[in-house]
């Protein structure tokens, strides 16, 4: 008598029974790994997670959605723009496209990122209409954070120019890091008016 592969949804103890269906076996293993990492949600389904990039601007630690950043670069050579605000560091060329580079620390705190620091990076925005590169003090890398760590953020402690861009925060290393939508910042009137 031959054994038939199961036709219904996998039960928690049926990995062995899925040995004849490698695709469903992998899906079930992935589901279990995700549930073990995130824990079940209120409905018993695996919890959701937020994907983003962790960075630092001065002493301020921030998160931004991963989909809003196209790439992370070492600071390139720039050409100064006469008559521009000090926070507009200049213009650079990236694969044939001109991109203005904004010193995010200077924009938020009126104090520029020192030139030559080893951790300094440029976040190239994925905004389709407004090309922009944002110079930050440091990029910590990608973060996948369970939604259960989402927290409310006290906006009073943040620079005024970034408050409209904050969509809550997440508990990271016992500290709430604000989650900032950089596309919202780039679309703001102040950001789009770099003239002195």
Tally of DSSP helical segments: 3
Q: In terms of per-residue confidence, which ranges show pLDDT below 50 for 5 or more consecutive residues?
A: 1-10
State the order of secondary-structure elements, H for helix, E for strand. HEEEEEHEEEEEEH
Structural category is alpha+beta
Global mean pLDDT: 87
The general outline is elongated
Give the N-to-C terminal Cα separation.
Answer: 84 Å
Query: Taking Cα atoms only, what radius of gyration do you get, to the nearest Å?
Result: 22 Å
Beta-strand percentage? 25-35%
Helix content: 10-25%
Largest sheet: 5 strands, mixed
Number of strands: 11
- Strand arrangement across the biggest beta sheet: 3-6-7-5-4
How do you describe this structure in short?
With 196 residues, this protein is of the alpha+beta class. It contains three helices and eleven strands, in the order H-E-E-E-E-E-H-E-E-E-E-E-E-H.
């Amino acid at each position: 008598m031959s054994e038939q592969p199961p036709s219904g949804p996998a039960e928690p103890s049926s990995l062995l029974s899925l040995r004849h269906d490698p695709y469903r076996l992998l899906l079930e293993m992935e589901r279990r790994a995700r549930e073990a990492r995130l824990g079940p949600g209120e409905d018993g389904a695996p919890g959701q997670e937020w994907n983003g990039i962790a960075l630092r601007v001065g002493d301020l630690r921030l998160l931004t959605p991963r989909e809003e950043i196209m790439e992370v670069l070492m600071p390139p050579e720039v050409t100064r723009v006469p008559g521009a605000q000090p926070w507009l560091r200049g213009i650079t060329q990236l694969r044939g496209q001109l991109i203005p580079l904004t010193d995010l620390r200077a924009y938020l705190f009126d104090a520029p990122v020192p030139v030559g620091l080893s951790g300094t990076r440029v976040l190239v925005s994925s905004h389709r209409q407004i090309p922009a590169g944002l110079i930050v003090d440091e990029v910590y890398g990608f973060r996948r954070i369970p939604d259960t760590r989402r927290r409310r953020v006290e906006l009073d402690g943040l620079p005024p120019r970034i408050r409209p861009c904050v969509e809550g925060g997440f508990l990271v290393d016992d500290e709430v890091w604000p989650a900032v939508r950089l596309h919202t910042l780039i679309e703001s009137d102040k950001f789009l008016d770099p003239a002195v």
